[in-house]
Amino acid sequence: MEWVVDFKDVGLNDIARVGGKNASLGELIRSLGPMGIRVPPGFATTADAFRSFINHNRLRQPLENNLARYKSGQQTLTNTGRILRGLMLKGTWPPGLAEAVVDSYNQLGREVGRRALDVAVRSSATAEDLPDASFAGQHESFLNIRGEAELLDAVRRCFASLFTDRAIRYREEKGFDHLRVALSVGVQRMVRSDRAGAGVMFSLHTDTGFPRGGDQLRLGSGRKHGSRSRDA
After folding, report:
1. What is the pLDDT of residues 190-209, one digit of tens each?
2. Packing angle between helix 77-89 and helix 148-160, nearest 10 degrees?
3. Looking at domain 4-231, does it have CATH number 3.30.1490.20?
4. H or E element: which one contains 156?
């Protein structure tokens, strides 16, 4: 079972394994690297890693039970999300998973010549960036993460963010099975703001699906976020 993969080893055929965002980052590195365009390196945890975390902590049944109470109206969305995220945040690491993440992080630092490298830690769900669904802004991102302990905490918090209130409700509206969606986490070297730039561009309005700027302007643009944010 493979728990961690390098960005350069994945592409758009790997969405089920590392989610839409991480698969796209891998595609950028593989396609643009040979052209001399520098994309910050990194790695991703896999869907198998997320499911191993769930199984190791015996969370499937508690997650299903609380989601069932929400669907039947016995429990509010707010309470359901809080309980589910709490269950995830209390989880411990399966044998070998934390070590695999830390080893990849340290290897990334060696490759760029930096110890305790600053990284971005970003969620990448296996159901995001699909033609009929966008989970933009629904999962967590953490920037300027440094050191092994901070990294593992951020990865766990990304796992838990599969159950933000907004993500739960959106999956319900779109008919996704909550526990068939997995969450991959991308760990990528931070870009120095004084030497480079980064940003996000949407070709469709993430809530309405409208493709034209005028429609987006009338309906309002997306939220702006700080160093801890809902991942876009």
Report:
1. 986 666 665 666 566 656 66
2. 150
3. yes
4. helix 148-160
In the chain the first and final C-alpha atoms are separated, in Å, by: 29
Name the residue among 16, 20, 66, 62 with its Cα closest to residue 168. Answer: 66
Token output for 41: 């390196």
Phi and psi angles of residue 78, each rounded to the nearest 5 degrees, phi first: -60, -45
pLDDT in tens, 122-148: 999 886 554 455 555 678 899 999 999
The candidate with the shortest Cα–Cα distance to 188, out of 126, 144, 127, 140, is 144
Which pTM value belongs to this model? 0.81
Q: How far is CA 22 from CA 9, 122, 208, in A?
A: 11, 9, 24
Paired sense of beta strands 139-146 and 4-6, if any:
unpaired
Please report how the helices 15-32 and 47-56 are oriented relative to each other, as an axis angle in degrees rounded to 10.
150
Do residues 230 and 160 lie in contact, with contact meaning Cβ atoms separated by under 8 Å?
no
